[in-house]
Design brief:
seven-stranded mixed β-sheet, Rossmann fold, single chain, alpha/beta, about 30% helix
């Protein structure tokens, strides 16, 4: 089955290195280049990426762009990738990068935010390599709009920082830089915690990969960012619930496998 490929990359594919045994996802096709108004306001637009199907049905990703009045096509761009149980809503980030002379785009990964559909398990993948298709499809869309030689920098927050780090490593030269904002590159504690927990997680992931695990998130982080608790932002709580979407063994096993690859 087709896989992301860089002719200059002589390392084994990302799939063979961190694959979790699931079938390789279908490559993106039939990109929807139509831009529609986004819920963030009149200067934001969104476009849907058709990523084919997985075991739950049709899968989509969504690209959001910031395009204020008088926007001039830029020679460089930033693509922002959100974290776990999250989506893009931080308009200040878009406005900051625009002020630096960069076009700004954000990617709501499959099964998150604008890309989440009723038949899907929110945020679930059992192999972080799956996101290679989401990122590659978003870059294709950006370059179709700004030009094939546009310099694009990835910006990843939390789990998005882990995903972007892995993608950039296995696709050298495809982006001009990488910005990591609180990247989740290791389990809280130490690598010893990860090493000890991986066998148990792998076993749970084989038996019942989508079973919700007990939550240890008391919701304190959400209270620091949600405006109704005194934080900075108002956002769609069906896309960013408090405390979070349920954590599932298959997803957490994929995360720890990604941590091991970074280490």
């Amino acid at each position: 089955m087709p896989q992301p490929h860089n002719p200059h990359n002589t390392e084994p594919s990302w799939f063979s290195l961190i694959g979790g045994g699931a079938p390789s996802p279908q490559p993106p096709h039939a990109l929807d280049h139509a831009w529609r108004p986004d819920e963030l306001g009149p200067t934001y637009f969104q476009s849907t990426l058709d990523l084919g199907e997985d075991d739950e049905g049709k899968v989509y990703a969504t690209v959001v762009k910031y395009e204020p009045a008088g926007f001039v096509r830029a020679a460089r761009a930033v693509l922002y990738v959100h974290g776990w149980s999250d989506y893009f809503f931080q308009t200040e980030t878009a406005e900051f990068w625009h002020a630096q002379g960069s076009a700004f785009y954000a990617l709501d990964l499959r099964k998150y935010g604008r890309s989440l559909r009723d038949w899907q398990t929110p945020g679930y993948v059992d192999d972080l390599a799956t996101y290679a298709f989401d990122i590659s499809a978003a870059l294709t869309l950006i370059r179709a709009e700004l030009g094939a030689h546009t310099s694009i920098m990835l910006m990843g927050h939390s789990t998005g920082g882990l995903v972007c780090s892995l993608w950039a490593h296995y696709n050298p030269g495809e982006v001009s830089g990488l910005v990591l904002n609180s990247p989740w590159l290791e389990l809280q504690g130490s690598s010893i915690v990860r090493t000890m927990s991986q066998p148990a997680l792998a076993q749970l992931a084989r038996i019942n990969p989508k079973a919700p695990l007990p939550s240890i998130d008391a919701g304190f982080y959400a209270k620091t960012i949600n405006a109704k608790f005194g934080g900075e932002w108002e956002y769609n709580e069906s896309w960013r619930p408090n405390p979070s979407f349920p954590v599932r063994p298959g997803w957490l096993s994929a995360i720890t496998t990604g941590h091991a690859r970074v280490a």
